[in-house]
Automatic annotation (TrEMBL):
SUPFAM superfamilies: Helical backbone' metal receptor. This is Nitrogenase/oxidoreductase component 1 domain-containing protein. Residues 13-433 form the Nitrogenase/oxidoreductase component domain. It comes from Paenibacillus durus. One of its GO terms (molecular function) is oxidoreductase activity. Gene3D superfamilies: Nitrogenase molybdenum iron protein domain. Pfam families: Oxidored_nitro.
Length: 438
């Protein structure tokens, strides 16, 4: 065996049950073992910012609890019972049936069963999300494609100024909902009308209206590109791919200018909004400059990010460009496709094509080994998940949760996107530093 999974942070494709919960009015129906459902809830929601069950999540998730006898005889009859019972007791605008490893190995034809009920007028779709197929990133794309295939209305006239916004994987990113709200708000301020497939204001109508958009906007280094290609092929909708989550003044200006140019927006209005937010951002950053400039032996000497590609690259760039901090290493643990890794590595280059820091694609349990062998003797700031807090503790450093599982913090609408999100990130970082040094 080449590798042992000691710290599962990307979960399995069945974790897409949380993608369904990220749509208001949608309920997942899980054709799999109950332990899979509950463990995914614990890992992706409860122990990841305490995001809650929602309607149809957690212990209320419809599930047929498949056992060994169903593995032999098949579980399609059990699935029919589950669908009929769920429709009776749980109101929803859309039901999404997800299948797990055991029933797919047994050969259950889940999609055929679902077609029976869809032909009766029940709003129901399915996705084959067996965990052995891949991580929750794959499951999220499978669910997105399945819902778009059956819910989006082909042939709707395209409307200028409307954009479909796609950002984080719901629940896996503990800040996903706040991030979507923040990005949507900024896009609205520069003159776009934002349609949200996922998030607070999402619903099935948003999915029906997907073809109306002038373009799709994907904010992610790699996850979601399959969905963008699917929507382009099916509805002829172009997409803008922005690989970084804009954090702070420098990157957010680039992001908004890129979107404005792509959408053909009035640059005067866009510049007015950007300038106003920059003034506010630098006003507060200047107030903190006395703290940042202190020569204090208790301050972190270097920061290390251990997270998915988007947060690792985006936070590294922000802390380097806006806050002037020194990066010690960036560890990407979301296992992006090999063909895209070179483009992801370029996100860590400065204006002179020099890397901010060493960049490594690795299993998270190997980061501690790297730190022992290659890091300096200074005080580290570790930005990762709760699995990484011992790395900081052993080196008398500081730690902040920025990814799953974030079991040491409650996350409501917190986010690090945009001008204001950058300030929030600095507050959270130095709150940790000052809390341990005062």
């Amino acid at each position: 065996m080449g590798n042992i999974i000691a710290q599962s942070r990307n979960y399995c494709a069945l974790g897409a049950q949380h993608s369904v919960l990220g749509i208001r009015g949608a309920v997942p129906i899980i054709h799999s073992g109950s332990e899979c459902v509950f463990r995914l809830h614990k890992g992706m929601s409860f122990c990841n910012g305490y995001q809650g069950m929602g309607y149809g999540g957690g212990s209320a998730t419809p599930n047929d609890n498949i056992h060994r006898n169903h593995m032999i005889m098949g579980g399609e009859a059990r699935l029919r019972e589950l669908i009929e019972g769920t429709v009776k007791v749980m109101r929803a605008e859309l039901y999404v049936v997800l299948s797990g490893c055991n029933v797919e190995l047994a050969g259950d034809d889940t999609s055929a069963v679902v077609r029976e009920y869809r032909s009766q007028g029940i709003p129901i779709v399915s996705a084959d999300t067996a965990g052995f197929k891949g991580s929750v990133y794959l499951g999220h794309e499978l669910v997105s494609k399945a819902i778009a295939e059956h819910c989006a209305i082909p042939g709707l006239p395209r409307r200028a100024g409307i954009v479909n916004l796609w950002v984080s994987t719901p629940y896996l990113d503990p800040f996903w909902s706040g991030t979507i709200e923040a990005i949507a708000s900024m896009l609205g301020q520069i003159g776009l009308k934002v349609n949200l497939p996922y998030g607070l204001t999402s619903d099935i109508r948003a999915w029906r209206r997907l073809p109306e958009a002038e373009f799709n906007l994907l904010i992610s280094p790699w996850s979601g590109l399959g969905t963008m290609e699917y929507l382009r092929e099916k509805f002829d909708t172009p997409y803008l791919h922005y690989p970084l989550l804009p954090i702070g003044a420098v990157e957010t200006r680039k992001f908004l200018e890129t979107v404005a140019d792509y959408a053909g927006l009035n640059r005067t209005n866009v510049e007015t909004f950007i300038s106003s937010e920059e003034t506010r951002f630098y006003y507060y950053l200047d107030r903190a400059s006395e703290l940042f400039a202190r020569f204090d032996s208790r301050m972190p000497t270097r920061f290390y990010t251990i997270a998915d590609s988007m947060y690792t690259a985006s936070i590294t760039r922000f802390l380097h460009q806006d806050a002037g901090m020194i990066a010690g290493g960036a560890f990407l643990i979301d296992n992006p496709p090999n063909k895209l890794r070179a483009s992801i590595e370029r996100l860590f280059l400065d204006d002179f094509s020099e890397p901010f820091c060493p960049v490594a694609f690795m299993e998270p349990e190997n980061v501690d080994i790297w730190m022992r062998e290659k890091s300096d003797d200074g005080i580290p700031l570790v930005l990762g998940s709760v699995f990484d807090s011992p790395i900081a503790d052993e080196r008398a450093g500081y730690y902040l949760s920025i990814g799953a599982p974030a079991a040491d913090r409650l996350v409501l609408d917190c986010h690090y996107a945009g001008f204001r999100g950058g300030l929030r990130l600095l507050e959270d970082i130095y709150g940790k530093v000052l809390g341990l040094t005062v």
